[in-house]
User: Fold this.
Amino acid sequence: MPVSSEMRILILGGIGEAAKLARALAPVHAVTYSVAGRGRAPDVPCPARSGGFGGGEGLAAFLRDHGIELLIDATHPYAARISRNAVAASRSAGIPLWAYRRPVWRPEPGDDWRRVADWAGIVAALRQFKRPFFTIGLEPLRHVADILPRQHWLVRCLVAEPPTTPRLTLLRAMGPFSLEHETALLRDYRIDVLVAKNSGGGAVEAKLTAARQPRIPVVMLDRPALPEADREFADVERLAAELSESGQASIAAQLLENGLV
Assistant:
């Protein structure tokens, strides 16, 4: 069957690479960019929406109501619930799901990583330290009762209420952060351990480099398991390139098979 030169695409975004993908595809396709609502609104040359869809069923209804032909999951690596909803919605709506999976960081010579799977693992790993620096979002603010009497926590996140304990300092900030900034922060707050998610990407990687030289240990929270998409890509340039005539033909074939065209 003939393939339209323009496809209706929904990008589930929230990271820099997702906005980059939207900018690459918008001149050719009818792209809608969606974010969960936290952080800065992206600068993209296409319609953008914020807020949730109401779970997998709500997302599936949006896909059907707007005639979406391809769903792209380009969310944060730790947004596992959204990725699971994307799989359920694409199956329900009968459209393909492609996903950008940002490559993980890997320890380099001089790094001292202690990998953990959950909050309990973080607490156990921090028992020997006094001044941890948390870069994992809001989760530490839900566990102020876990602060040991000899500890002081430094927590950096986007939006939060002021802490209710003098043993926690809150920094409201969003990356990217320079190496000079991160080095000064670790020094000025006398940080003896960094707590991080293995987010990948370059926007917040400087903190790992800053911790490497003084050999500050890193408690690294492992990524959650993500569901499989129909196609997965490790870089957005490759994903955009695949939306060529042959890529569109395969998508059109799946839509035809599902009776949607």
